Amino acid sequence: MDEARNSAGETAANLKIQNIFTSAFVTNACSVLIFIALTAWRWPLMTLDSWQTFLIRMPLEMGVTFFTVTAVAKCARNAFGFVRTGTVPLLLPVDALMGYGLSYAQILGIALVTGAIFYLYVNHGLESRGLKYALFATVFPVTTTSLAKYNFTHGNSWELEQVLAFSAITFMLYFISRSKDERPLRHLKNPWTLVQALATALGNAVLIYGFNLMTPSVHTAAKRSTAVVAAASSGKIVFKEKHLAIKLLAAAVCVLGVILPAF
Q1: What contacts 109, CB < 8 A, 6 or more positions away?
Q2: Can you tell me the distance from the alpha carbon of 150 to that of 195, in angstroms, rounded to the nearest whole number?
Q3: For residue range 14-30, what is the model confidence (pLDDT) as tens digits?
């Protein structure tokens, strides 16, 4: 769902149909509505005990969103997907510090992911266009993901925290879109935009629910392993990017590397 949204958003931006920040605004607005519904359904159980760490997470999450959206627009599709798998090995030491065990399989997974990305880079399988934004979108989530996991296990209801988080991010995206002479609210009437936004919003809800059931590194591994294959496919089919064979080989190594932390 996320890859479909990103590809559609980049295509719309390339065709000058809408700004990439407008696409992100619509998606996040739909996510807010879904999390509001979930919060209302379980309102008597809602708590926000770890509000202090939530306040730390919030500006960082806004930074992650800004760099991720910018990377979607400026970075090659498959380069974006591959580089973001780097979040997984970066999360593993943080998981260890938080009390989760670090196995030999997880260490091997770190080596495989890092090696695959390095191999792509030196063999020109990764385009450098917009790569710095993808790197920021890779490193920042280490902090925000760990903070979110801490909050969810220390008294913050995930539905309520996500309502507040997505609301703040949506406001930020609205004003960025307006600064680029867009009228983001108008796009809420566009059926094509709404379909992709609702699909991603539902995916966000499922992802956050799953986040409560596993460690941050394993959750991110599951998400990134599917994203990297989807990014390689969309990069070739939709955006006609080159070096498909090298990228498919690296994708297979990355998938193996991000699955290993689960064992």
Answers
A1: 88, 89, 92, 221, 256, 257, 258, 259, 260, 261
A2: 33
A3: 555 567 788 888 888 88
Burial (CB < 10 A; 0-12, 13-18, 19+), residue 79, is buried
Cβ atoms of 207 and 223 within 8 Å: the answer is yes
Say what the pTM is: 0.76
Place of tokens 């974006």: 80
3-state secondary structure of 98: coil
As given in the structure block, the two tokens for residue 177 are: 């879109």
Q: With bands split at pLDDT 50, 70 and 90, how would you rate the model's confidence at 237?
A: very low
Place of tokens 């306040």: 55
pLDDT digits (tens, 9 = 90+) for 163-209: 999 999 999 999 999 988 888 888 777 776 777 777 778 877 887 87
What is the amino acid identity at position 143?
Answer: T
How far is 241 from 245, CA to CA, in rounded Å?
Answer: 11
d(CA 125, CA 244): 8
Q: How far apart are CA 39 and CA 257, in angstroms?
A: 36
The 8-class DSSP code of residue 126 comes to S
β partners of residue 257: none
